[in-house]
């Protein structure tokens, strides 16, 4: 009997520990200070390509069951969510220059005191790195449709400054700055020809 009681207590502690790993942050200050509210019922879903193409926005939808008020908060007002060791930032709160990223959440990580998140390219500079050549040739509605469908799969990295909230595109110039004290990584990066998240991400993660 005592054994089952102890197992029950252990199971409860494990459950409480697990629930404590989901934290929501109302603003950038709370995120920087890691001072958010613990939630145990978050549902994190990967959005489909069709959903992103039709409605725009980032890769992850974060919600809760049977709580419309909290769902609205997560969608519109929450700044970031941490689930275990994975961080997500609300793209509705992000701006790159004057461009918006749309709604929902993008995966993010802390690297050398800055936050880097992976999202669709926005703005003329970022979009030009991944725009399909056919879209430029065709132009008009057809070209726009091709460009939009191409951007569904395209991802680049952005740097979020935790002191100012400013967002910068992580392109070649930014990567050269970040890798200047890592000669081996820098030499390898100089051989790359893409600014996509797949390329820049593997070098960023080596800096953690």
Question: How would you describe this protein?
Answer:
The protein has 208 residues and is an alpha+beta fold. The chain has one domain. It has helices at residues 2-19, 28-33, 49-55, 68-76, 123-127, 133-138, 140-153, 172-178, 183-189, 197-206; strands at residues 22-25, 37-38, 42-46, 60-64, 80-83, 86-90, 95-96, 99-100, 105-111, 114-119, 156-160, 167-169. It has an eight-stranded antiparallel sheet. Strands 3-4 form a two-stranded antiparallel sheet. A hairpin with a 6-residue loop joins β11 (156-160) and β12. α3 (49-55) crosses α7. The N and C termini lie far apart (48 Å). Mean pLDDT is 84; it is low at 1-18 and 133-146.
- Unreliable runs: 1-18, 133-146
Q: How much is the average pLDDT? A: 84
Q: How many distinct domains?
A: 1
Rg, nearest Å: 20 Å
Global shape = globular
Number of helical segments? 10
Short description:
The chain is of the alpha+beta class.
Q: Features of this protein?
A:
43% helix; alpha+beta; single chain; 10 helices; 8-stranded antiparallel β-sheet; 208 residues; two-stranded antiparallel ribbon; disordered N terminus; globular
């Amino acid at each position: 009997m005592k054994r089952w009681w102890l197992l029950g207590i252990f199971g409860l502690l494990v459950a409480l520990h697990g629930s404590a790993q989901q934290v929501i942050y109302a603003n950038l200050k709370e995120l920087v200070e890691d001072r958010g509210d613990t939630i145990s019922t978050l549902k994190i879903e990967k959005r489909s390509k069709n959903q992103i193409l039709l409605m725009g926005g980032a890769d992850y939808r974060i919600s809760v069951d049977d709580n419309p008020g909290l769902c609205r908060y997560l969608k519109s007002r929450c700044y970031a969510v941490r689930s275990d060791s994975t961080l997500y930032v609300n793209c509705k709160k992000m701006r790159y220059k004057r461009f918006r990223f749309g709604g929902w959440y993008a995966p993010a990580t802390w690297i050398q005191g800055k936050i880097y998140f992976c999202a669709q390219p926005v703005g003329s500079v970022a979009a030009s790195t991944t725009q399909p050549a056919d879209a430029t040739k065709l132009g008009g509605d057809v070209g726009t449709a091709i460009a939009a469908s191409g951007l569904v799969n395209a991802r680049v990295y952005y740097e979020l400054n935790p002191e100012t909230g400013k967002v910068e595109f992580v392109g070649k110039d930014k990567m050269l700055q970040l890798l200047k004290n890592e000669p081996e990584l820098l030499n390898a990066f100089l051989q790359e020809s893409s600014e996509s998240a797949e390329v820049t991400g593997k070098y960023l993660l080596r800096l953690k």
